[in-house]
Design brief:
By secondary structure, the protein is an alpha/beta fold. About 40% of the residues lie in helices and about 15% in strands. Strand 5, helix 8 and strand 6 form a beta-alpha-beta unit. Helix 1 packs across helix 12, helix 4 runs parallel beside helix 11 and helix 12 packs parallel to helix 14.
């Protein structure tokens, strides 16, 4: 499909998406003409929340899967009594072909959180620690601290928000698992491939490198390292369909690993994948226009927001993903609660950065709504927000527990 950038911006930012674009990219139109566009609830009747609630808290894509994928899922649901055992195999083979590895190097799971958990279980212990950046995605920390009783080494980001690769490698000569999220969650910053290769070449003997590429499709500067898995290095890669493929609530993801390392992951569980999820994933994987169109849509909304924040003097991380951190200079939880009063739900803080909040990137209109509400909140004294009760407690808990 040929589509100029200008035309794409017109379709995604100023009017409902046209039929040609919607065919490839969106099941729900990316409308920007009203408050609570695509980032608001696609069907507010499904939950107890107002239709204009703008959800920017757990890095979801602001519209649903492609129409073709939705239609296929409808067909599958009518035959939901069947297991369709071969469908997971077919999608696994399609994934393997798309990333250049043999099928036995890929295992599908319901998202990437499961294989991340299993990796921490398999490769950390009281004798083998977990090493990761701070701040970053924290799920592996909970597994290490509460289950395997492993020591956790949190290595602060550098002043430019990049990973301190050397410090991570030197953190513990007995490291079991080194975790890199690229682009990083929550900052959205990219880890250079050369840095990942350096970690692989210099990491402690016997340790395993786990690279989480959940957000890789949002950046044109992120280089995948799945080819290093194909070369049988001590590295594993996580991918998910929850983000740019808009399957957060449908649940599909996978891990790419050497077969002997995969066997250690499998010891903690391999289950039947939902047939609707594997069908949805396979159809979208085959659509070559989904990633570039959706990446551009997010980039336009993100860059417009960055220009706005910069104009008003706010500090933010130079994200290349669908989320970023912005410094609020006061307890981030108070700002989170204050924005929620205005029906803008943003993400959480990290313990190491208590005066920063994470914001997911929605549609252009969603980000305009965020900009207006954010400046209004920040112009009020910090005392005005102390003690505010979040009007949507489910979303407050979600921000603390997920992504």
């Amino acid at each position: 499909m040929s589509l100029s950038r200008r035309k794409f911006i017109q379709l995604s930012g100023a009017a409902p998406v046209g039929a040609a674009l919607a065919k490839h990219a969106f099941a729900a139109p990316m409308a920007a003409g009203a408050r609570g566009g695509a980032g608001a609830l696609n069907d507010p009747g499904l939950v107890d929340a107002p239709s204009d609630l703008v959800i920017l808290n757990i890095n979801e894509f602001p519209a649903g899967p492609t129409p073709a994928a939705v239609e296929m899922m409808k067909r599958v649901v009518t035959n939901g009594n069947r297991y369709y055992l071969t469908e997971t195999r077919k999608t696994t083979e399609a994934i393997a072909s798309s990333v250049g590895v043999k099928p036995q190097y890929v295992t599908m799971y319901a998202g990437s959180s499961e294989p991340l958990t299993f990796s921490a279980l398999a490769f950390t212990s009281p004798e083998r620690s977990l090493v990761l950046a701070d701040p970053t995605y924290e799920q592996a920390i909970g597994v290490a601290e509460k289950v395997t009783r492993a020591k956790v080494h949190r290595v602060p980001l550098k002043a430019d928000y990049s990973y301190d690769i050397k410090a991570m490698v030197e953190a513990d000569p007995n490291a079991g698992l080194i975790y890199i999220c690229n682009p990083n969650n929550p900052t959205g910053t990219v880890v250079k491939r050369s840095d990942i290769e350096w970690v692989l070449a210099n990491k402690p003997k016997g340790s395993v490198l786990l690279v989480d590429e959940a957000y890789t499709h949002f950046s044109t500067n992120t280089e995948s390292v799945i080819d290093l898995v194909a070369a049988d290095k001590e590295i594993m890669v996580l991918r998910t369909f929850s983000k740019i493929y808009a399957m957060g609530g449908i649940r599909a993801g996978y891990i790419v690993a050497r077969p002997d390392m995969m066997e250690k992951i499998h010891a903690y569980g391999v289950n039947m994948m939902p047939t609707a999820a594997v069908q949805c994933a396979r159809i979208q994987l085959q659509d070559k226009d989904v990633i570039p169109l959706r990446r551009q849509m997010i980039a336009d909304a993100r860059n417009d927001t960055f220009a706005f924040l910069g104009k008003h003097g706010y500090t933010f991380t130079p994200s290349e993903s669908n989320h970023f951190m912005v410094k609020v200079g006061r307890p981030g939880g108070d700002v989170h609660n204050a924005l929620a009063q205005k029906n803008i739900i943003i993400g959480r803080t990290w313990k190491v950065w208590p005066e920063w909040v994470r914001v997911s990137v929605g549609s252009v209109q969603d980000m305009k709504s965020f900009q207006t509400a954010f400046v209004d909140v920040m112009q009020q004294p910090p005392s005005a927000h102390v003690g505010l009760v979040h009007p949507y407690p489910e979303y407050a808990r979600m921000a603390e527990q997920m992504c």
